[in-house]
Design goal:
9-stranded mixed sheet; 5-stranded mixed sheet; 650 residues; 19 helices; 22% strand; Heat Shock Protein 90; alpha+beta
Length: 650
Amino acid sequence: MSEDLKVNDYSADNIQVLEGLEAVRKRPAMYIGDVGIKGLHHLVYEVVDNSIDEALAGHCDTIKVFINEDNSITVKDNGRGIPTGLTAKEKKSALEIVMTVLHAGGKFDKDTYKVSGGLHGVGVSCVNALSTHLRAEVHRDGQIFEQEYSIGKPLYDVRVIGESKEHGTQVTFKPDGSIFEFTTYNYDTIAARLRELAFLNKGITIHLSDLRNLDDNGNPVSNVFHSEGGLKEFAQYLDRNREALIPDVIYFEGEREGIPVEVALTYNTSYTENIQAYVNNINTHEGGTHLSGFRRGLTNTLKKYATDSGILAKEKIEIDGDDFREGLTAVVSVKVQEPQFEGQTKTKLGNREVTAPVSQGVSEMLSIYLEEHPAEAKLIVEKVLLAARARHAARKAREMVQRKNVLSGSGLPGKLADCSEKDPALCEIYFVEGDSAGGTAKMGRDRHFQAIMPLRGKILNVEKAMQHKIFENEEIKNIYTALGVRIGTEDDSKALNLEKLRYHKIIIMCDADVDGSHIETLILTFLFRYMKELIENGYIYIATPPLYQVKKGQRSDYAWNEDQRDALIQELKGGGSESSVNVQRYKGLGEMNAIQLWDTTMNPEQRTLRQVTIENAAECDQIFSMLMGDEVPPRREFIEKNAKYAKIDA
């Protein structure tokens, strides 16, 4: 860090108050999304975002995050330190204002932060309100300042507790267990976001340490995230489990019309498109004007090159935008001073002035690359032509699916046992592994609102199949038809039309063995690649049948893990030493009768459903490509790393 920091340019007068903090504890989901795992981890990101904002402003290059033994979190940076002087209007310490008033901070002052990711969130004050305890420590102006809070309220005025030659802010907080459903942090979830931030902000070093878990040497499990290549390295990371079509990552970084633009792209031999778009470090899952600019620049430039080279003249086939993006991996990042977000989840950029700068930047970098690398350019164009031929074949296959669809009046799949309820919001469908388990589920269900759709064996691995093969697959056609969804619209041939979706709970129910897990993964891969909208709207769930039945005499109980099983055994033994308790390990749904399946797995009053969500699209993409792709070493490494979480009885 440079020692000539302009600390005096960042003072108490830069802090502006927009509104209070009254409703955060009453309606926390409005501010952090939910009070489950996602909301819990969002607290960490809010605090880290403040440090990232300091880095974006050029005043911070190191951030340290600690998961403490008691599941509290500490975030420390070497930025300028939050101002501690009195504000002109409120006559309170700026530190206290930042920590106790929602939407208060220097990021609302354009001279303090040119761009800000934290502005999209709700601020550290919201974290404070939802924590039983928070401590802020500021190193600034040669002194150490401190203030502590309980559920958002200061325990004392900001005070000086020592001298320091350092500069920066350290925040430690413990989430309120009366607010959150869970208060145990997941190391991998936090690591994925910090790794993403390191790629998006090259040159920054982010440390993560888990003080709850020690390695073989007695040191905390830890990672250091640092990237000098930025998005270029990000694209390589995303594609590390795929076979490369070209050896290079095509890269552009520059400023167009006052907007910083950074783009990296490459091609692989897969049939899927993976574009990650960011605005001020925020992953814009719904796209927006920056993504439109990227697609325009890519399509126009590649199409012009293919036409000028004469390759297209030999082909009597129509090319469209989708064909240019098959096998494409790309990361787009823009920094916008005043981002305008749209969409249901507020993750769609609406600033129209962003489209042209991104399009121009992509066009320039791609034109230069294609001219300088004719062999690679030919490979890309041939890949585009292959995609176009496959798309035409897929269109015919999709039309066959549509003809079978209930909307066309030709009926539902023969194996589907439908429910009598017609309101999709009240209906649920179980996709069940095999006819045997499907038969048991049909007998055990509530016919009023529960539908059963047996699937025959393992469905197609869509990660390795071309589109037309996917839509020709009988089981996949039956899934589309049973759900009632339509594939494609006039505007986007890959979009899923959910207007006629027949069930708002789509539940995957498989055996609790290796084959069952494989089938689950195959179905989830298909849903992620071709029905992502169902996951994004919260319609996908996984059933959790019990692993054990523990019996003694007339009493019978169920256990979902080994700890529950052992506790039941001890309880039923009643302190005795006899081997008089019978334990059955369920390896298949067919081992339970209809009543047992209803009681444990299908009854809404007693069952446990795991909702499938997408926390990090980039991480999901690489995990699915790794699990279902051809590369064995990364899959073996993943299994070995996670084997400790799986316990299989002999």
